[in-house]
């Protein structure tokens, strides 16, 4: 009987590492970055992390290394909880104060830029794991100087150009509408995705270049838009920059094995980055292929497998513990009977 009790005890204790391993393996459950206008990090990733083409992206790699580009969808703060200005100091907005992405904070006027116009704009946020939450996109104020470090005061925080809560994910993107005010020359769009099922938030900087007025550069301008064409010349510091281009699905897939976002980084040891697992009826898979859609109002976490592993391991551990207690009671009772 003693040998049997020892065997059960070993089984119970042996479950602990399995449970801890399962917990450690659960990835942060939401990731993404602005796809249109393309963010700095996604633009540089599209150019190729090992050998980017533009001078700005080359400088970003020189400052922070290539891993930041492979982790393009992981510029985040796990416990942001809406405290963005408190947690991110001036000059570090594009990196969200994360040293891995410090190259994105470089103040220079030659970041590749997306051509835009004042008027309606259809924003597309590239998402690799959908979740409930709110997007807010802010534009820099008139007079913004890209050769200076980006500060919170450079953004028009009182008037976001786009706000969207629980939009629909389709074809790997959240798409939501906004309106770009009149600007000229080089400007910057700052996007914040604050999850509502977790304190985690994601951040991105998108460089844009304003030309004429009317429909947005992505063809989403409102019919009959008649905003006046800016008459003032672009500021002297708004030097020409290469055109921006977002990474393709093939490029994203090709670099997935080098990303730490879905594997051993960005929140795996930080419980605050992932929401509690949802009921089986609420579980929804990740972004659907083009033509499919998904209502984020029903999503809690699309990475259900780790939670199933955790739940299974925990159940086994509890079952083993119950068995151990049962055997121990039997041994104790049996000992009494043998003594009589």
Keywords, separated by commas or semicolons:
340 residues; alpha+beta; ten-stranded mixed β-sheet; 7 helices; 10 strands; 21% strand; disordered C terminus
Q: What does the model show?
A:
With 340 residues, the protein is α+β, with helices and mostly antiparallel strands. It is built from seven helices and ten strands. It has helices at residues 2-25, 40-47, 55-64, 67-70, 84-87, 249-254, 304-339; strands at residues 31-36, 76-77, 114-129, 133-139, 162-165, 168-170, 173-180, 185-195, 201-213, 294-295. Strands 1, 2, 3, 4, 5, 6, 7, 8, 9 and 10 form a ten-stranded mixed β-sheet that branches.
Poorly predicted ranges (pLDDT <50, ≥5 residues)?
7-13, 15-30, 212-217, 219-239, 263-332, 335-340
The beta-strand count equals 10
Oligomeric state of the chains in view = single chain
Series of secondary-structure elements, N-terminal to C-terminal: HEHHHEHEEEEEEEHEH
| SS-derived structural category | alpha+beta
Biggest sheet overview: 10 strands, mixed
Could you estimate the helical fraction of the residues in percent? 25-40%
Number of helices: 7
Mean pLDDT: 72
What is the first-to-last residue Cα distance?
Answer: 18 Å
Shape: globular
Radius of gyration: 25 Å
Approximate strand percentage = 15-25%
Question: Topology, pairings included?
Answer:
Blueprint: H1 2-25, E1 31-36, H2 40-47, H3 55-64, H4 67-70, E2 76-77, H5 84-87, E3 114-129, E4 133-139, E5 162-165, E6 168-170, E7 173-180, E8 185-195, E9 201-213, H6 249-254, E10 294-295, H7 304-339
Parallel strand pairs: 3-9
Antiparallel strand pairs: 1-3, 2-9, 3-7, 4-5, 4-8, 6-7, 6-10, 8-9
Helix pairs in contact: 1-7
